[in-house]
Amino acid sequence: MQLFRSLLPGLLLAAALSLSAGSVDVSWAVVPQAPSGAFLEQEPLRFTLREGFQKACRFQVSDVYGKTVSEGEWPEGGKGTLTLSGLPRGYYTIRLSAPGSDYEDCATFGVVSRPRRPTPGMPYALDSAHSWCAEANPKNVRFPGRGMDRVIELAHRSGVGFVRDRWGWGSIEPKPTIRGRYWHFVENAQKLAVHGIKTSVVYHDAPQWTKDTVSDLPTDLVANYNFAFKSAADTRGCVGAWEFWNEEDAGFTNEPAWEYAAQLKAAALGYRNGNPDATVLNGAFCVVPWRKFTYAALENDILPYIDALNVHTYNPLKKYDEWNAEVRKLLEQYGRPDMPVWITESSTNSPRDARRKSYMPGLFTYSPSQEAVIAEFVPKAQILMQAAGIEKDFFFVLSPYNEGYSDWGLLRKDYSARPGYFSFATLVHELGDAKYLGELAAPDGIRAFLFRKPDGSQSIAFWRQSELDLLENAEIEPDNFKPMPQTWTLPAATGVYSGCNLYGTPMKLAAENGQLRLTADRWPVYVHGLSGLTPAAPARVRPAKPAPDPETDLSIVIRAKLSGDFIQNNGRDSVDMKGASGALTLEVCNLSNETKRGTLSVAGGTVTGMPGTIELKPMQKLSFPLVFTHAIPEKEFNGKIEFTGRFNGRKTTRFHIPIRLLGREILSMKRNVLDGIYNPKRWHSNCAGGNHMTTRYDEKEGALCIEAEFPPGTNDRWVYPEMELSLPRESFKDAVGVSFEIKLEADTAPKESYFMLVMEPKIKAGDHNRHGQGEFHVRYPIPDQNWQTRVVQFEESVKADPADTRKIRIGLNPKSDRVRYWIRNLQIIYR
Questions:
Q1: β-strand partners of 364
Q2: pLDDT of 93-149, one tens digit each?
Q3: Is the pTM of this model over 0.90?
Q4: How does residue 475 score in pLDDT terms, banded at 50, 70 and 90?
Q5: Helix 320-333 crosses helix 368-387 at what angle (to 10 degrees)?
Q6: What one-character DSSP code corresponds to residue 135?
Q7: Which letter, b or e, does each residue of 686-724 get, where b requires 16 or more Cβ atoms within 10 Å of its Cβ?
Q8: Which string of b and e fits 220-236 if b means at least 16 CB within 10 Å?
């Protein structure tokens, strides 16, 4: 028996690709009388027509198979309330028609199960981001007000047990004694908690008063601890997890790994003491294969401070096994092979670029076929990660959110619910209270996963592998998806079994002669009431959480402020040194309520100025000026700076800085000096706000001078002059990096700075030729008012052959409306 036909044809009927002039947009005209069109079972299915569209018309309701399930005249000539009856759980569309009227697109709605109290430990989760993404937006003419309560209600109706939200430390504590928009964030978490939903909170900003430099991270360990402590204490019972920072291995910090590690330790201690029941997480690492930044952070012993490793992935499904293997390998390398893993952002680029023009100017939205890809992805991704032993997997994102040509939200900009919302709610209802047992043996091309329900019965989720399972994201064409049905059988006692499709629409399945005949399609199906099945690949068993090491004192946190004798390498994973010795200030902080006495020691070299016995009162920080001399042999390049301590008879965790003497290393490598940079005519203007950039040769500095002035009110200021390479003389073939000297005009404070390689863009059919394709942005340490050499390594940031480079850019993102900087001595470094 074939369970169902292709879901896609009905979805393709769901909307026209664009609305012609004078047409009526049905998605706007029809108003479901349920939040975002997400009706609960037994809730009346009522609809009205929006004022201005109330005229005589016919309606047609279709299910996901394209089958008409209800039709007729709209009540009272369009002025009444349409009430539908007899529709089971599922996803539906409403179309309108009338003689002489041009109706286009359609309204969508769905019916979900009444949510039960979320099951503790359920792995299926949502990144809602509602405290940011659901703010009021007057430009959104179809939903200009705040959408936070709507998102919270939709989270409740989905049955989810954990959501991820974003706070803003800078807006909460703009001054040390001022609480700003604090309760805005707390109230959102409290509203979710009423429904049994816990929140994981992430923030990746800090008020300026917590910093002694121009930086992203705080530098004040005590202020960091205090904010974490108070926030955790105030939100007991509603915030169930804390993440310190976000994607620090990528673009959310300018600071190095060791600084991040020290601040993570301080925040983790605050969370733990403020709410011992909350899960403490690192800010998510998002780059696999792992960057050296991640390894450097772990060398600082951060794992004892967290309860689970936090990571992000947007990989295609075919790479999940490989990705999970890398995660487990990292944890095994650092002695925690069984540490829980949380994925606090998980989504897919498989729909490719959004193709429909949105009603909001300048934005694009997903077509019905693209939305169908997300609906298919959601349960597959969640189940595959559950099978891999992932403890929590947060799909990104519930709230409406556009990022370039990606239209991430499970809610559209008008806050109507997409099909992916209903596929997630179905997953939670069908398996949210079940225990995963393992993967079943199945014919080639079929994946089947076994679960045990609370009553002891067994359930399965299964599907036929599709392009989504087997291809890279860029190889997927949503408009070409086909159902690809395949029959198979399971041993089952003769009788009738219940099941449902991707959107929860119920079905009955009959087993005869000890066999249950099933049809697998690309869209997951759930079957319940089974028994006696044994998985071919049993679920991964995770041992109990290890007890804290009684010999380690986590409350002593060490960090260092490095002088200009040290040069941060562009990966933020190591430092170079101008000479054999360098000055630094070591900070030692006691983040506990008892006095600690002890000593410090150093590895990787020697120091002068090291104190003897140190006494630290509760919440006290002491600083010591030191001079460090490395112990790296003359023809070698790698070493470390590592401080540890022993206080009250217990050891501290390490403060570890890798040393990589790049200046010494590149002396042994081939170099090509690009004298052409001094010709202003070779540089093309490339800056925010239009053509407000000039270049000139400065004879006094012997350098190219770049100046830019931005129009008042420019929010996103950037200046990246572009130079086309003269090939083959200036080729980047076999290049491993560049070095150059740079300095800024006084009182200029950029927030980030990049060297860019611009290559031949490779645009696939159906994709927009958007800014950024064929470009690699490699961050380098922010310059200042003194001439400094910057060495930019390509090894982790350039995922293509540097030989394809056709243009280069060197610039920065200033904080002021006017900027001036100089560059000289640009050299390509070859392997």
A1: 357
A2: 999 999 999 999 999 999 999 999 999 999 999 999 999 999 999 999 999 999 999
A3: yes
A4: very high
A5: 40
A6: S
A7: bbbbeebbebeeeeeeebbbbebbbeeeeeebbbbbbbe
A8: bbbbbbbbbbbbbeebe
